[in-house]
């Protein structure tokens, strides 16, 4: 029997390489969702991974870090927040 | 080739067009979203009640604490909460609306709780604040006082302090200051 494929539709999904259901500790929205100021998830609203092992929406974390009261500390563990460069992931 | 990018652009254009037309729609702010989530996760127990004077405004509410043990047992203590638009990056502003005798609450109602000030961080939620507030009534803390006289009393003589608390709660006078009656 010969099967002829006339048409096919590719469908792709994506999610961040994070455990599912995990939320950003700052806005409490899932990592695969957006921070409160963005409308579209994905590259427009990426995540930031800290060396301390805590991750947040980049926009959420930057808003915190830019605030003087944050003293540059991770909102989760109060260690100095330094982000992992993408090549050390 | 998949046209995800152009689709995204179209989507964005549509959004922008909508934004121009439908500006009357009230925008839900980040602070409101986060407060909504916090309220859903709240566990008040039977010693605390929350009321919203304006049901349309979830950023301003009152909390009443009725400690069921400790030296403040039998009292009803009311606090106003004001959450600003920078929440959760800024802590909520909490004030006691009564004049009470407590080492960590001054006569104007300002509350001294570390997580409301220097130790606030955006991963804390309203539940953490509320638990902290309740703890102040179970375990008043003399080492970081706002009402220095009350703290001194607590340090010097715990039993005398307890008596002062009872007097103040029934609307009596302690060290020439008359307090509000807060008993149920």
UniProtKB/TrEMBL annotation, chain A:
Residues 35-78 form the RING-type domain. The keyword Zinc applies. SUPFAM superfamilies: RING/U-box. Pfam families: zf-ANAPC11. Pathway: Protein modification; protein ubiquitination. Keywords: Cell cycle, Cell division, Metal-binding, Mitosis, Nucleus, Ubl conjugation pathway, Zinc, Zinc-finger. It is found in: Nucleus. The keyword Zinc-finger applies. Coiled coil: none annotated. Its main location: nucleus. CDD domains: RING-H2_APC11 (cd16456). GO terms for cellular component: anaphase-promoting complex. InterPro entries: RING-box_E3_Ubiquitin_Ligase, RING-H2_APC11, Znf_RING, Znf_RING/FYVE/PHD. GO terms for biological process: anaphase-promoting complex-dependent catabolic process; cell division. One of its GO terms (molecular function) is ubiquitin protein ligase activity. Belongs to the RING-box family. This is Anaphase-promoting complex subunit 11. The lineage of its organism: Eukaryota, Fungi, Dikarya, Ascomycota, Pezizomycotina.
From TrEMBL, chain B:
It catalyses: [E1 NEDD8-activating enzyme]-S-[NEDD8 protein]-yl-L-cysteine + [E2 NEDD8-conjugating enzyme]-L-cysteine = [E1 NEDD8-activating enzyme]-L-cysteine + [E2 NEDD8-conjugating enzyme]-S-[NEDD8-protein]-yl-L-cysteine. Residues 1-27 are annotated as: Disordered. Its EC number is 2.3.2.34. SUPFAM superfamilies: UBC-like. CDD domains: UBCc_UBE2F_UBE2M. Residues 8-18 have a biased composition (Low complexity). GO terms for molecular function: ATP binding; NEDD8 conjugating enzyme activity. The keyword Ribosomal protein does not apply. Keywords: ATP-binding, Nucleotide-binding, Transferase, Ubl conjugation pathway. The active site is at 112 (glycyl thioester intermediate). The keyword Nucleotide-binding applies. Transmembrane segments: none annotated. Residues 30-174 form the UBC core domain. Pathway: Protein modification; protein neddylation. Belongs to the ubiquitin-conjugating enzyme family. This is NEDD8-conjugating enzyme UBC12. It comes from Penicillium chermesinum.
